[in-house]
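During the reporting period the student researcher (J.K.) took over the structure-prediction task from the postdoctoral fellow and processed the backlog of single-chain submissions. One of the processed entries is reproduced below for the supervisory committee.
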Amino acid sequence: MTDDTSDPADKGRLRMIARRRRRAFVATLDPLAHRLAFKVIPSPLARRLQDVRTVALYMGLDDEAPAQRLAAQLVAMGKAVALPRVLDRLGSMDFLPWRPEDQLFPGLFGTSHPAPAGVPVVPDAIVAPLLGFDKAMNRLGQGGGYYDRAFARWPDALRIGLAWSVQEIDAVPADPWDLPLDMVMTEIALIEGDTTDEGA
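J.K. obtained the following structure tokens:
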């Protein structure tokens, strides 16, 4: 990230810079490139998902990377798909089964989720939105703690960040309780630790 802060541990300032940077990037994207982004799962990720049964996605808001575009290919791969349901303002959520043709219902904070009567599922992989990430797979989220709690609740689930490539930053301050991502998928690459596999 070219913008810097005087205090690298200032997550609030990092979030402000990251939001501004993401917004500017998405505003300059060619409309066709935006529509095609994240519709294809790269082969390294497909291999990692081979034994996965249920993948938790999210409905991208505003200029977030649109995770819902992965749904059709995941279903074609024989995977069940789920979406988060925010339960309260304290950072609690679960995941409800969802198919791309299903109706969505309004939730807290402008979110959308499947029918509230659905039975929650246990995700084998969690695709998470983010504001920033670094090569150590640390994730800078919105600050609500929802995905931190989800990662802790389902520690065996594969943790996948979804982001635009411009969201990579030099270093994300990590607290002791933060669990790093296993990988990050951008519109141009699948990144695992310090290695990058092209083909997203």
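The committee noted the following: The chain is about 20% helix and 20% strand.
J.K. will present the remaining backlog at the next meeting.
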